[in-house]
Amino acid sequence: MQSSKIKKILKEYKDVFKALEEYDKTHELPTQRKRIDVTLSVETINKLKKIKNKTGKPISRIIEESVVD
């Protein structure tokens, strides 16, 4: 009886357990954000600013969305 409840919980919250397992290894959560310095051309920065003004999204979010599957 209890093992079926445990299996149900493990199946239902599989993503949460996977994130916690990754946190144990790296001490970083997958949803955690980090600031980094990146050098971009002026042309690229201007394109990103245009997209930002058009969509209202922050530049970091635009970059993330273009990189992440």
Annotation keywords:
69 residues; mainly alpha; 4 helices
Structure explained in plain terms:
0% of the residues are buried. The mean pLDDT is 90. It is elongated, with a radius of gyration of 19 Å. The chain is 68% helix and 0% strand. It contains 4 helices and no strands. The chain is an all-alpha fold. It has helices spanning 2-12, 14-26, 42-55, 59-67. The longest helix is centred in the last third of the chain and has 14 residues, at 42-55.
Can you lay out the helices and strands and say which pair or pack?
Layout: H1 2-12, H2 14-26, H3 42-55, H4 59-67
Question: Brief overview, please?
Answer:
The chain has 69 residues and is mostly helical. It contains four helices and no strands. The mean pLDDT is 90.
Mean pLDDT over all positions: 90
Count up the helices.
4
Largest sheet: none
Number of strands: 0
Helix content: 55-70%
